[in-house]
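Sequence design from tokenized structure. All designs in this work follow the same two-part layout: the structure record, then the generated sequence. An example of the structure record is given first.
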């Protein structure tokens, strides 16, 4: 490298100074190239820029050309080609001392030109290659290690300049995009005028993208045809408007795929040659999509070889299009809303009328009240406002239509009176004065009006057979009649030529028809009135079906009640017979024993000495006690006596009951295991009923164990998950209960023993429930049975708390069961 008056340090400092100036980056790089060319005695210093979207290198700035001239150089250097391509691929300086005698492989003539020596230094930082710097000399040149180190430092500084410039430009671009989006958002939110908004958006985004032209197309009502609504730009000579054939084809593809289309080369689309023929170098098209439906497309064109649309532009326009979709949808919704508002104004009166009619129809489920309301709804000013109405119902064989009821004025004077009735009369139902007013309009002579279903000329029959409404202005084809009321016998011919008939259809079956006319109003029946009449017929048919079902249900209910009374009486007799049989069986055995031993005492047999009166008396006493127990159990179960709550110590009651069984335990060789918790709190319960519970459980256990076994009685505090209370457990080793009958043990009169009423466990269950407790059974078949009874501290039965406090006050005890003392 030739000597320079600048030291290496001062040269690098000057490069840094130029890099940090605030002029455009191309101008800074031009100053750097000129400065290096002058100070290093190099004939040409040229910077090649790497393509942002690829690896190719293109001339950017040169010391031997002006910036504009350099921009016109249209050749590129691919990696590995020429001197600069090799430096770009190696990411290291490449020097060719004599390119004329020893040129690089894949040489680029426009890079070599007339130069002899070329040094190419990569312009890069730690992560990215921005391009290369070529130092080209006409005469042979050489470079020392220090020279290469200096030029690499210069290239690194140039890389920083390019990087900072890109960051600055990106920041400016982002700010511009945000400003544009803000402007578009304000424009969109300020109007529902679609075309003006689209023009503003096209103009703003075209300026932001630096494109040459923009075209917006919107889909028609059928969503299949795209129509151009906005053309913006197209001011360059030779590109005054979009080529519609190519633009339409591209737009249809974007519209159908609902995806953006970016074309920068032949590999992107087969239509690139057509675009290139127009001078278009880059194309961007984005669909305007709302809720998965394409509403249109927006297309951008660039003819500058330096400008290529990229994915950032795609994302920006997609954001804009999402807002445009909202505008288009909102405008469409507004148009629909305005149209619907006009239609709704017409329908409001219909809906109000139908509501009043439906409310009147649902005001009763009795057929004799429903039918007058239904017909009055057809002729009243507050209803459908026809002149006359007749209800026809099909006969059971379906061969005829029979007039069930008719209503309407008989002359014009009565018609004027009906026209003056208040509209609210319809909503009053059919009771009181309103009902009387409605009933005065009924025709009394309609029972003989019949229409054969085989009559092909009758339009009323036709409406029923075809299950569709019929409207005519020329009658049925029968002779015309002008009487106020239909003549006797034949219906057709007795009505005016203008009338309508609507079938009453329920679950696909025609049940009859409603006939209406405007005989006294002399106005035609419109299609809208037919629609109202059809909806009315649907409601009326449902109301009639409800009334019919109601009448059927009343009959069925009477039948059920009668049957229920018989069943209850039968079940009472069966229960009474079963109970009588059980009690008679249980009483018979002790009575037999009592009678036998009493006769022995009264009439001792000669020669056998004096009878053992005392032993006989004890047997008689035991059997009497058994009879008393049977009677008491039966009385308790039948009367269901309410408990008398007071403070009770459960352990004390258990000990008293067990004491009564002491002799029986000894005789039956039963071992008693007692585990009564000393920390058991006082509970509020009926002590007599508690003793009954314990007695029944222990008695059942003794009978189940027979000759020997182990009886366990225990108490403890209840688990918090069960509630606040205590638990009584009684278990035995009597072999358990068969699994096929265990579910019946709490049923009255059920027992597995040879003797007994079967009321013991039923009484236990009833007492526990009245105390607000719960009983659980652990049946271990072949081992034994364990009963677990939970008793709350305070019974949960409704009103129990008040009764306890009242009993405590009468008994002189406080709420925790302690005696109170005066003073």
């Amino acid at each position: 490298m030739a000597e320079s008056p600048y030291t290496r340090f001062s040269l690098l400092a000057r490069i840094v100074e130029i890099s940090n100036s605030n002029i455009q980056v191309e101008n800074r790089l031009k100053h750097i190239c000129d400065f290096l060319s002058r100070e290093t005695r190099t004939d040409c210093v040229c910077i090649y820029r790497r393509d942002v979207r690829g690896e190719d290198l293109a001339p950017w700035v040169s010391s031997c050309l002006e910036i504009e001239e350099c921009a016109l150089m249209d050749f590129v250097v691919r990696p590995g080609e020429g001197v600069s391509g090799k430096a770009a691929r190696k990411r290291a300086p490449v020097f060719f001392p004599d390119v004329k005698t020893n040129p690089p492989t894949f040489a680029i003539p426009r890079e070599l030109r007339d130069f002899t020596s070329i040094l190419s230094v990569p312009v890069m930082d730690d992560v990215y290659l921005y391009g290369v710097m070529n130092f080209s000399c006409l005469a042979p040149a050489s470079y020392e290690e220090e020279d290469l180190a200096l030029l690499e430092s210069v290239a690194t500084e140039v890389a920083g300049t390019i990087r900072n410039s890109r960051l600055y430009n990106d920041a400016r671009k982002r700010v511009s995009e945000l400003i544009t989006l803000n402007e578009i958002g304000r424009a969109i939110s300020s109007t529902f005028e679609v075309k003006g908004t689209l023009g503003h958006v096209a103009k703003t985004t075209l300026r932001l993208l630096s494109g040459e032209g923009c075209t917006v197309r919107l889909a028609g009502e059928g969503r299949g045809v795209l129509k151009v609504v906005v053309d913006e730009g197209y001011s360059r000579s030779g590109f005054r408007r979009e080529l519609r054939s190519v633009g339409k084809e591209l737009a249809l593809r974007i519209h159908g795929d609902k995806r953006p289309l970016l074309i920068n080369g032949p590999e992107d689309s087969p239509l690139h040659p057509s675009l290139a023929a127009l001078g278009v170098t880059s194309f961007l098209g984005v669909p305007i999509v709302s809720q998965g439906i394409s509403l249109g497309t927006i297309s951008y064109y660039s003819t500058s070889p330096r400008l290529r649309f990229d994915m950032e532009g795609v994302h920006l326009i997609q954001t804009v299009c999402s807002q445009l979709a909202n505008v288009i949808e909102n405008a469409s919704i507004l148009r629909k809303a305005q149209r619907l508002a006009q239609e709704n104004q017409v329908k409001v009166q219909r809906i109000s009328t139908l509501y009043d009619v439906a409310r009147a129809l649902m005001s009763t489920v009795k057929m004799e009240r429903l039918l007058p309301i239904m017909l009055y709804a057809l002729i009243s000013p507050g209803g459908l406002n026809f002149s006359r109405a007749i209800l026809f119902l099909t006969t059971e064989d379906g061969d005829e239509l029979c007039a069930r009821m008719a209503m309407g004025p008989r002359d014009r004077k009565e018609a004027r009176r009906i026209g003056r009735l208040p509209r609210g009369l319809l909503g009053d139902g059919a009771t009181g004065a309103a009902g009387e007013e409605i009933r005065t309009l009924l025709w009394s002579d309609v029972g003989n009006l019949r229409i054969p279903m085989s009559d092909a000329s009758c339009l009323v029959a036709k409406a029923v057979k075809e299950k569709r409404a019929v409207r005519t202005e020329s009658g049925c084809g029968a002779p015309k009649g002008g009487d106020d009321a239909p003549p006797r016998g034949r219906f057709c011919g007795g009505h005016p030529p203008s009338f309508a008939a609507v079938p009453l259809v329920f679950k696909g079956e025609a049940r009859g028809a409603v006939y209406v006319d405007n005989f006294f109003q002399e106005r035609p029946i419109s299609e809208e009135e037919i629609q109202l009449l059809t909806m009315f017929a649907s409601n009326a048919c449902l109301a009639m079906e409800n009334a019919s079902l109601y009448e059927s249900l009343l009959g069925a209910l009477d039948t059920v009640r009668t049957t229920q009374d018989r069943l209850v009486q039968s079940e009472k007799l069966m229960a009474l017979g079963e109970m009588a049989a059980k009690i008679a069986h249980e009483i018979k055995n002790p009575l037999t024993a009592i009678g036998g031993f009493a006769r022995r005492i009264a009439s001792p047999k000669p020669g056998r000495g004096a009878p053992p009166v005392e032993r006989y008396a004890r047997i008689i006493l035991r059997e009497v006690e058994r009879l008393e127990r049977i009677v008491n159990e039966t009385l308790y179960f039948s009367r269901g006596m309410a408990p008398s709550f007071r403070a009770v110590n459960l352990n004390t009651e258990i000990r008293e009951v067990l004491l009564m069984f002491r002799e029986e335990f000894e005789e039956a060789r039963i071992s008693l295991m007692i585990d009564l918790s000393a920390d058991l709190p006082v509970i509020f319960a009926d002590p007599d009923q508690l003793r009954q519970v314990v007695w029944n459980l222990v008695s059942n256990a003794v009978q189940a164990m027979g000759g020997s076994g182990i009886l366990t009685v225990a108490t403890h505090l209840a688990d918090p998950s069960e509630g606040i209370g205590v638990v009584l457990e009684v278990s035995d080793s009597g072999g358990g209960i068969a699994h096929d009958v265990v579910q019946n043990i709490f049923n009255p009169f059920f027992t597995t023993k040879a003797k007994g009423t079967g009321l013991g466990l039923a009484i236990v269950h009833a007492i526990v429930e009245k105390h607000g407790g719960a009983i659980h059974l652990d049946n271990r078949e072949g081992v034994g049975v364990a009963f677990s009874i939970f008793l709350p501290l305070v019974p949960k039965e409704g009103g129990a708390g008040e009764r306890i406090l009242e009993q405590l006050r009468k008994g002189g005890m406080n709420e925790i069961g302690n005696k109170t003392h005066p003073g």
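The chain is about 45% helix and 20% strand. We note this feature because it recurs in several other targets discussed in the main text.
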